[in-house]
Amino acid sequence: MTKMVGHEHEIVFMGMVNVNRDNYLQGVVDVWRCRSCKRTFCDDKRYGEPLKASVGFDSIPDDEQWAILTCTTAKEVFMRSLGVKPGKQIEHTCKSGEQHQFVVRNDLSLDSSTAPPIHRLYLVKDYVNKVIEAGIYRLTMK
Question: How many domains does the chain have?
């Protein structure tokens, strides 16, 4: 159990979100929830990267929601979970080394061009036990 100020969380597995690149699994976000306060926690696992050495769950401020940021090129999809809210600035470095700074819009999306790399935000609550198809083919189809 994880202790928080004034509350001891009893965290149980809630589900997962698969992130695909044109039907190929790129990574998974495990979603956990406290039985009593219903607060959610996320843990990322990506192919080609070792598991984190840390044990425990990252938390986000109470005024934020869990989201998955995807960075899509023709060959791969990078993903990570993070807390978002309208007006929040997100800094991201693509695997190519390109640095980006995004501001989360009121509808919890990003202002991102459609030319690769394509960056998108997906709310975790909308995709628990579902698949995010973030491949370049699906994102650029008209």
Answer: 1
